[in-house]
Design goal:
The chain is α/β, with parallel strands linked by helices and about 425 residues long. The chain contains 16 helices and 16 strands. The chain has three domains: about 130 residues, Rossmann fold; about 150 residues, Reverse transcriptase/Diguanylate cyclase domain (Alpha-Beta Plaits, 2-Layer Sandwich); about 120 residues, Rossmann fold (3-Layer(aba) Sandwich), CATH 3.40.50.
């Protein structure tokens, strides 16, 4: 429902106009005192303003200028009312930049049509300017304006609304392992699910890369949480994708829900509460998932690779695999495994170069990963290379599997 504020010092115009606007489905307010009207506009910006040009205390021209000087109010469409039917007066008003101009006495039906046309154009404009190109959601610019409007409206009319913060779990890992085109597809799928469970009056904003904010007008927190439960259930059923190491990637989201109440003093305070609850939810989700140690096996010989993976799984490790050094580096950066079993002789990039690259990385989360080098040679020269490039342990083929598992357990717990 669009909100309209009318400022005119003539009560004979305001009373019938207020009645027609309300009967036409608009939430309307009228003010004969321009100071009061200006305060109402600032406290809760409307969708459209009907403004008499000639008023005591503060003219319509002055109010229109003040609107243009305020970034939060400058885009509100304005219709000027005037008692003069002179073309020069109309031209003057239009030069100021108003959206429309109508002279008194006016036909009420004509005014309502002008209002309808302006609001339609405004809606199209906002959809273009505020639309996120990838997802079709409201973008960050639209978020700021919409949030301020909802908050001020709820505060003024003692209404409620809920805000929901959403963050896609492990989104960076999806991009790193499968590419940004897959990550983009995940964003679109999540938004499609959100739209499916929301009302036309609700709003979805893309706040950041994988962060979204949902506004639920006139919705209490318990009702908002019921909606989110249905969304969570469907998001978890998005088809599981596999990464280059055969790892299963399941989509999940963390959420934070807060409803406005009179004890909240600003939009930022409400936002911070929702953000805090979302990160608490994400932290709890991570805690519940922390169980098995991750081991990356980098080995180009299929039989050896399969044997190592089998024994590691039996020992309770979560396993990942790579057949060459190039894939190994990609997986190591994305997954940060607790240990790497790394064959010295690999296609594309050697195990020696992989180990050296990891050890020289600026990220301590990567550079300190324990590495056990695997090789078929036992010479001192080979072992010296392993120590120089930073391997924690050295194992030669054919392996003693029990010894391998013992050392994996030892170094993976560092």
């Amino acid at each position: 429902m669009a909100r309209i504020i009318v400022l005119d010092d003539n009560d004979d115009i305001l009373k019938p106009l207020l009645k027609r606007l309300k009967n036409s489905g608009y939430a309307a307010q009228t003010f004969s005192d321009p100071d009061e009207g200006w305060r109402a506009i600032q406290e809760s910006p409307p969708d459209l303003i009907i403004l008499d040009r000639k008023m005591p205390k503060m003219s319509g021209d002055v109010i229109y200028k003040k609107l243009g000087e305020n970034s939060q109010l400058a885009d509100i469409p304005v219709i000027f009312l005037t008692g003069k039917d002179l073309q020069s007066e109309k031209n003057k008003g239009l030069r100021l930049g108003v959206d429309d101009y109508i002279t008194k006495p006016f036909d009420m039906g004509e005014l309502l049509l002008r209002i309808e046309n302006i609001l339609k154009k405004q809606k199209i404009y906002k959809e273009k300017v505020w639309s996120d190109k990838l997802t079709g959601c409201i973008n960050r610019d639209g978020f700021d304006t919409l949030f301020s409007k909802l908050f001020n409206g709820a505060k003024r009319y003692n209404d409620i609304f809920s805000i929901v913060m959403i963050d896609i779990n492990e989104f960076k890992r999806i991009n790193d392992l499968l590419g940004h085109h897959v990550g983009d597809n995940v964003l679109v799928q999540v938004v499609d699910i959100l739209k499916k469970h929301l009302r036309e009056s609700d709003f979805i904003c893309r706040y950041g890369g994988d962060e979204f904010v949902i506004f639920l007008p006139s919705t209490a927190q318990e009702n908002a949480e019921q909606v989110i439960k249905r969304i969570l259930a469907e998001v978890e059923n998005i088809p599981i994708r596999k990464g280059p190491a055969g790892e299963r990637l399941k989509i999940g989201i963390s959420i934070g829900v807060v409803s406005y109440h009179t004890g909240i003093s600003s939009p930022n305070e409400l936002f911070q509460l929702a953000d805090k609850r979302m990160y608490e939810n994400k932290f709890q989700s991570k805690l519940s998932q922390q169980s098995k140690k991750k081991v990356l096996v980098v080995e180009d010989e299929a039989d050896i690779r399969k044997a190592l993976l089998f024994r590691l799984k039996q020992a309770g490790f979560e396993t990942f695999a790579a057949e060459d050094g190039q894939i190994a580096l990609r997986i190591a950066r994305a997954l940060r495994p607790d240990l790497i079993l790394l064959d010295l002789r690999l296609p594309k990039i050697s195990g020696e170069e992989v180990c050296k690259t990891i050890r020289e990385d600026d990220d301590p989360g990567l550079s300190t990963i324990p590495i056990i080098m695997l090789t078929a040679k036992t010479s001192e020269a080979e072992q010296m290379i392993g120590r120089i490039i930073g391997a924690n342990y050295y194992a030669t083929k054919p392996f003693n599997m029990d010894e391998i598992i013992k050392n994996v357990m030892r170094y993976a717990s560092l």
